[in-house]
Amino acid sequence: MRLALAAVAAVVAALLQASLTPYVSIGDAAPDLVLVVVLLWVSFGGLDGAMVAAFVGGITVDALMARPLGSTSFVLLLAVGAASLVARTGARSRIPLLVLAAFVLSVATALLWLLVYGALAGPVPASDPMGSAIPDAIYTTVVFVAALPIVILLRRRFGEQERVAW
Fold it and tell me: Which residues contact 57 (CB under 8 A, 6 or more apart)?
């Protein structure tokens, strides 16, 4: 059930990204909603669901936005691996660390996707890759921070409860 929920959440995020991001863009900055879902899922839902969300969401984004099929999934799966290392920390400073990881991974996935796109489809569609990656990463991080309290509350309400094992 959780894996199916991860896939549905990723598809909904991909549909919103393909349809709404041109309307909610601030200047040239647009959020990567599938990355936000993947980062939230790896932080609070587990690695297996995050991998499903990354693969299904990436394939959906590629199909909807006419990108090379599988390029976004590849980049998102690498982001899941990096984010899972951050999510394993049990420190008190976990939330600020997750926010910092969201920003760093947003920049890294944008640049890596441009590299993969250049290798698969030809010239890179951005003249200044870092100049376009930073505003997108800031916007994606703001969306991540806005969704974080909601996910924490949902996790507390519907998450697995500790029980006495007999």
Answer: 10, 11, 13, 14, 34, 37, 38, 72, 73, 76
Q: Is 0.85 topped by the overall pTM?
A: yes
Query: Strand locations in 64-137, DSSP E?
Result: none
What's the gap between Cα 145 and its chain centre? 12
Phi (first) and psi of residue 52, to 5 degrees: -65, -45
Count CA atoms within 13 Å of residue 90 on its CB side: 0
Q: How many CA atoms lie within 13 A of 46 on its CB side?
A: 9
In the chain the domains, ranked by start, together with CATH numbers, are 2-154 (1.10.1760.20)
Compare 28 and 142 and report the one with higher pLDDT: 142
Give per-residue burial for 40-61: e unless 16+ CB within 10 Å, then b. Answer: bbbbbbbeebbbbbbbbbbbbb
